[in-house]
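Figure 2 data, in text form.
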Amino acid sequence: MANIKSAVKRAKQSEVRRLSNRSGKSAVLTARKKVLAAISEGNKEEACKLYSAYSSKLDKAAKTGVIAKNNASRKKSRVALSLKKMV
């Protein structure tokens, strides 16, 4: 453990940020699983709703710095492509 006051504060801040980032990433992954499950079931209406929620979570994660902006764009694009391929 750190001895210097500023280092102790920094360690606390890092832990809070780590937990926040982990929560954000987990929410994105859960939303992705739900969209892909709906796509694999062939439920296009449900998949479109879930894609909207997934896209929103990705944008929030990118805005807050949990993931990179291009990373979010790439993930949205790939899921949108698989959604478009549904008939």
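Caption note: The chain is about 85% helix and 0% strand.
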